[in-house]
Write a structure and sequence with these properties.
Blueprint (H helix, E strand, L loop, with lengths): L2 H22 L19 E4 L8 E4 L3 E5 L6 E2 L2 E2 L2 E3 L3 E2 L2 E2 L9 E3 L6 E2 L6 E5 L4 E10 L2 E11 L6 E10 L3 E6 L9 E9 L8 E8 L5 E10 L13 E6 L5 E12 L2 H16 L1
Antiparallel strand pairs: 1-11, 2-3, 3-6, 4-5, 7-8, 9-15, 10-12, 11-12, 12-13, 13-14, 14-20, 15-19, 16-17, 17-18, 18-20
InterPro entries: Gal_mutarotase_sf_dom (IPR011013), GH65_N (IPR037018), Glyco_hydro_65_N (IPR005196)
Protein name: Glycoside hydrolase family 65 N-terminal domain-containing protein
GO molecular function, one term: carbohydrate binding
Length: 280
């Protein structure tokens, strides 16, 4: 037989064997996290560990916050530090009150991250948005969904937290955004609920002054939901109570603005103006 014919038959036979082997090989195992959609995107950093000690540091050049596995500015109920550019006391950068804490209560206990359930935290590098998708638990009650923290680059004085959650129960849920971790190097000037034409309810504000450098800092907060809420009478810190229905999603909107000024009034008005431009 012609050698070229033999060589051709051999090549065909080898190719046929390879095709048969490939056909019967087991399919490669799917990555458990492939559905997260961020595995192949170099602009998205992901974490599946809610117990990380490092967390994420969000900043826009003016204000910053540290966010750990809980998805907000606290861990196990302890507020994490926030900072603001130019806010020094005795030549040391001074932590500002923690504006980034958002808490959920069912009337008895606070909902906390369920570390046994599916967990995903994504840092979207192009936008600076941190998204935590998880289950928060209080006993047998759960809230499942996501929380987004945004330190705005378009408005450097304003930060936002958006939550979209689904409960496994019927009842009421209380959401609060306490200002924590207030350094003793601040003098407390005022805590007021300011009337604002753009808000249907008074806006909680806080003014502080550094003890040595005499810098006046003001914070204004706005907390709301996509449904009717009740607000506690006589309480200035932001808190709302809303009805929830099993397996029906609800949304929480929280904005915080920060500003400095020559005195408490000017700083407060600056913070309220920043908040109005974001919310109103």
């Amino acid at each position: 037989m012609n050698r070229s014919i033999v060589r051709g038959l051999a090549i065909v036979l080898v190719a046929a064997v390879i095709i048969v082997v490939m056909f019967f090989l087991p399919a490669p195992e799917q990555d458990d996290h492939a559905h997260d959609g961020a595995v192949t995107d170099p602009w998205v950093l992901i974490s599946h560990d809610p117990d990380t000690e490092h967390g994420t540091y969000l900043a826009n050049g003016f204000i910053s916050a540290r966010i750990l596995g809980d998805g907000v500015g606290s861990r196990d109920g302890r507020p994490l530090p926030c900072f603001m550019a130019g806010l020094y006391d005795n030549q040391k950068l001074l932590p500002i009150p923690t504006w980034s804490d958002l808490r959920f209560h069912d009337g008895e206990k606070q909902f906390k991250i369920d570390q046994r359930d599916h967990y995903l935290q994504r840092l979207l590098m192009k936008s600076g948005i941190l998204v935590t998708t998880a289950t928060w638990r209080s006993g047998k009650r759960t809230l499942e969904g996501s929380i987004e923290v945004i330190v705005s680059r378009a408005q450097p004085n304003v930060a936002m937290i958006f939550a979209v959650l689904s409960p496994n129960f019927d009842g009421e849920l209380t959401v609060s955004a306490p200002l924590g971790n207030i350094s003793d190097r601040f003098e407390k000037l005022s805590t007021e609920a300011a009337d604002a034409s753009w808000s249907a309810h008074p806006v909680p504000t806080r003014t502080l002054r550094t003890r040595n450098s005499r810098i006046v800092l003001a914070l204004a907060q706005h907390l709301d939901a996509d449904t009717d809420v009740k607000r506690p009478a006589g309480k200035i810190s932001p808190s709302v109570t809303l009805p929830v229905t099993r397996d029906q999603k609800f949304m929480i909107y929280y904005h915080a603005s920060l500003a400095t000024g020559a005195d408490g009034d000017s700083a407060r008005q600056a913070a309220l103006s920043e908040l109005e431009s974001a919310v109103g």
